[in-house]
Amino acid sequence: MWDKDTAMRLLSTTPGPGNRLNLIEAWDDRIPKYAILSHTWSEDASEEVLFRDIENGKPSQKAAYQKVVGALQQAREDGHHYIWIDTCCIDKSSSAELSEAINSMYAYYGAAEICYVFLADIAELQQDLTASRWWERGWTLQELLAPAKLVFFTNRWTSIGSRDALSQLIHETTGIEQRYLVDADRIVVHDASIARRMSWAARRRTSRSEDIAYCLLGLFNVNMPLLYGEGGTKAFLRLQEEIMQASDDHTLFAWDDPLCSDVLHGLLADRPAAFADSGNYEPYQDFEERKPYLMTNRGLQIELCLYRMYSHTWVAALSCPPTAGTSHGFLAITLKRVPGTAVQRMARYGGLIEVHKRGRPEPLYIPQAISKATGITIRPSIFFRLRELSARFSLDYAQYDTELQGTDSYDFPDPVWRESTKHRTVYLMNTESRALTAILAFKKLAYLPPNGSNGVALLLGSSSSSEISVGAVDWQQYQHQDFQTLRAEVKRGPPGSWIELESHRVHISVETTFEASRTIYDVKVEILEVMRPRKNNSDSEPGVGKRSSALSRIFSK
Length: 557
Known about the structure:
Elements: E1 7-12, E2 23-27, E3 35-38, H1 51-56, H2 65-77, E4 82-84, H3 86-89, H4 95-111, E5 114-118, H5 139-145, E6 150-153, E7 159-162, H6 167-174, H7 179-182, H8 194-201, H9 211-214, H10 232-246, E8 294-296, E9 299-310, E10 313-317, E11 330-337, E12 346-355, E13 360-366, E14 382-389, E15 393-400, H11 402-405, E16 426-428, E17 436-444, E18 455-462, E19 468-474, H12 483-489, E20 498-500, E21 504-515, E22 518-529
Parallel strand pairs: 3-4, 3-5, 5-6, 14-22
Antiparallel strand pairs: 1-2, 1-4, 6-7, 8-9, 9-10, 9-13, 10-11, 11-12, 14-16, 15-17, 17-18, 18-19, 20-21, 21-22
Pfam families: DUF8212, HET
Domain DUF8212: 234-257
Region (Disordered): 535-557
């Protein structure tokens, strides 16, 4: 039952002379049968009977002394000679002992003959059992699930009922299905998916932020050192890393945190609350062989089935169905590429989605710590490069900040059609938010018949969230507007979608490449004409034929 070198300190249920509380120590298979107490600490922790109080012989001076005496009496009446109570049996002044006890806590409760749940805030049987704060504490989750037998008591030590008898009420209160509550073989708890077990802890709290991770060690059958001071987020990330070493259950990634919905993020959640709505996710069983995960200095190395959704957005299918009770489709997450490196580095972006195709397995690196800026982060040394253009159009004019761009050609190789234009095709990106880097005017080749517009103006820049943004307008629509007006008024969005104009349909796609130390967004422009009935001159809108603005030269040649 016990691992080698397991040690426990137990409290004798028979007080010594003068009602002195007696502690014993036992190891391995010499550990006697015992009962165990589950309770919530007093709001003022100094009221609890601690190990040092028993050693000093002054436990009766503490407010919680009667709770301990009642537990001893109940265990003694049930025929148990020993009981384990955390406040009394752990020397918290020893960090090594505290770490060992917390890592062994699930085993302590699992090996007990019976667990007594003392509800300090329930005095009468008529009171609402679910109103007790015992249900919302982090530590009491494993204390509810690990013991083979568990009975609830009021603060007067009146029996309320067993876990089995109250299983429906417990299910309604905690969301834990009854099959995980009534089965005498407690190993059934570890058969639940990772997401399901995480969901049980999603609404629980602990006094110390790190304990929200430490209290779940036994629930996931993992061990790790305690590092108080690291913070709850780091502790919870370490817990998930330990879980990954023991399981390839993809529901570990099936979380949806509203605090992370619009930022780049790693695959692992920051807190159990992210799994609040994930209790029904189960992995596909014996579905396929998966390569092991590995945490590296580039992030989590993992292979996921991937396909592209937009220019900078991919979909990664998880090996679990999208809803409970179905075997069709996959739960999926969206990923965006993290710029600045030539390796396949992605970051999670947004919530969970349902898909019915998976794409090909691709090796990925997904860093956990990412800048809080959303989307494709703009930095110096990132360039737009006009790489491909529809054959029916030519680059006729370009406007940009000459001070920013200077006269340097940046030593990029020219595209094959570069000889047909005297204008630059590479632009250093303006790193400011909502900035406009360049306006490029594309003119229809002279031998082609007109369709109501001579061409299209393309806008390249960044959005308010530091992502690439692109836009396009028919020339006649904005021929009176200057550079700054176009920047402010033309709607821009992410690349990868068709832009519908009066006389054209424009598709702007962007591919990320890396050359030397530079990140390059290669821009491919596809322009399709939309045939419209030609208007008579008398039907023209006022001012259409004027050429008064700074951009009026674009198509006047």
